[in-house]
Structure prediction request, 303 residues.
Amino acid sequence: MEHTRCVLRTIILIVIYVSAVHGSSRRHHRRLLLDARDATTLVSDPSLSFENVRIRNAYIALQAWKEVIVSDPHGVTTNWVGSDVCNYTGVFCWESIDNPKERTVAGIDLNHQHLAGHLPDHLGLLYDLGLFHINSNRFCGKLPKSFLNFKILTELDLSNNRFVENFPQFVLELPNLKYLDIRFNEFEGKLPEELFSKNLDAILVNNNRFSSNIPENIGSSPASVIVLANNKFTGCVPSSVMNMSKTLNELVLRDNGLDACIPETIGKLKNLTVLDLSDNRIKGELPVSIEEMRTLDMNITSL
Prediction:
């Protein structure tokens, strides 16, 4: 019931916001730009002064977020008051990359706070973010497309929440992203092939509802850790995994619907320390090459 109320609240707020900015000719601009009413409301105190425009934008973004947080059991946002956003709990500032004389919000870390609500479009104003960590909360709904603004983001951790939709496409447009963790949500559909062409070091998408085959180009990924467990993947373990012999340390595919071959070439993954294919429907004998991998922590059942 709580989840349903949260989703409905998110839908209502999105409808109101889109209606307020219907004059824009491009949909993604409507979601990225603040209308004058919102800006006036969020910066209504004439006594507030900001050290630079970046901090002012951060204030607008964080106040908009605070307004749509419906449960804050630990009082995390109680000190989200005033113009000094760098002293807000969970907010971290640093020198901006393009102007070291200006401070900016470089990180958000609200892990394990049990916050409930959704993520407003205004968060796209935090365009200097290097990391965004909100794991183990109760945020719900869809992710805002304004996250496309996070061009220098390196770490994105949305795990252990209640986000829904297909794989968030904006992730594919973040040029500096290295760490992706969207575990334990309600994402569904296919994983895009482009995910494995990105320069990611960790891809953690387990415990969602992703389905279909694992993309054939998984071997194009430079990641050291790939965890796709507890989804609905079917078919083969792609033979292209052999291409990750220099980088891959952990490959966890357990608890899916994989029902076909383990590639013979999997033994070429000399740096692999963890291989978990358990709780699938894989048949047949283990490739001989696996038995030669002495340092491997292996868990394979249904053979």
